[in-house]
Design a protein that fits this description.
Strand content: 15-25%
Number of helices: 7
Structural class: alpha+beta
Number of strands: 5
Largest sheet: 5 strands, antiparallel
Distance between the termini: 28 Å
Order of helices and strands: EHHEEEEHHHHH
Shape: globular
Radius of gyration: 16 Å
Length: about 190
């Protein structure tokens, strides 16, 4: 896509990132728990970075483990706001807050998608990662998707559903194999 313009987050030494298949399993498992009401999409994937000078809402997209520490790393994509450029960074999970934690600890008003919109986005991601696993997308290609995904431009579930054929109609998908661009019935 545009790897020359994409600033890849530096790899943490000894970090083991998720593969396409591991990401697919995690998303499937999380969506199952979300559908059962045992987990919320917002508290699982919508995160707040409370560090001074970097305060930002964003999205937790992937996880990695570092063999030399017990900390889980999260690939965080911050919201693009005035004065803050969109970026991907590997951050320790302990540096990030869920929506509830951010509101209680930092009195930060929530900005971002509703639970229903986040759930619809996760369904699109699951289908995208399923495609990535079937066609052995590279790590860089996954990062390009995460960096360019238009979270801020999808304020409703209808907008997510209308975006689906646009996403699955782009060359990254159509040049590889036939892709069903219709939303699943579960959405």
């Amino acid at each position: 896509m545009f790897s020359q313009d994409l600033l890849l987050p530096p790899a943490t030494p000894n970090a083991v990132r998720e593969t396409n298949l591991e990401t697919l399993r995690r998303l499937g498992h999380d969506l199952s728990l979300i559908e059962k009401g045992e987990l919320t999409a917002l508290d699982s994937y919508r995160l707040y970075l409370p560090v001074d000078g970097q305060r930002s809402w964003g999205y937790g997209l992937e996880a990695a483990r570092v063999s030399t520490m017990s900390e889980v790393l999260v690939l965080f994509r911050n919201d693009e706001e005035e004065g803050i450029m969109r970026s991907l960074r590997w951050l320790p999970l302990s540096m990030l807050c869920t929506v509830k934690q951010a509101q209680l600890s930092y009195q930060v008003p929530y900005k971002g998608p509703t639970e229903e919109v986040m759930r619809a986005i996760l369904h699109v991601f699951r289908d995208t990662v399923e495609f990535a696993a079937d066609t052995t997308w590279s790590y860089v290609k996954r990062l390009e998707l995460y960096h360019s995904f238009p979270f801020e431009e999808l304020p409703t579930t209808d907008a997510v559903h209308m975006f689906r054929p646009v996403l699955f109609g782009c060359p990254a998908f159509t040049e590889s194999r036939d892709v069903d661009i219709t939303p699943p019935k579960s959405e």
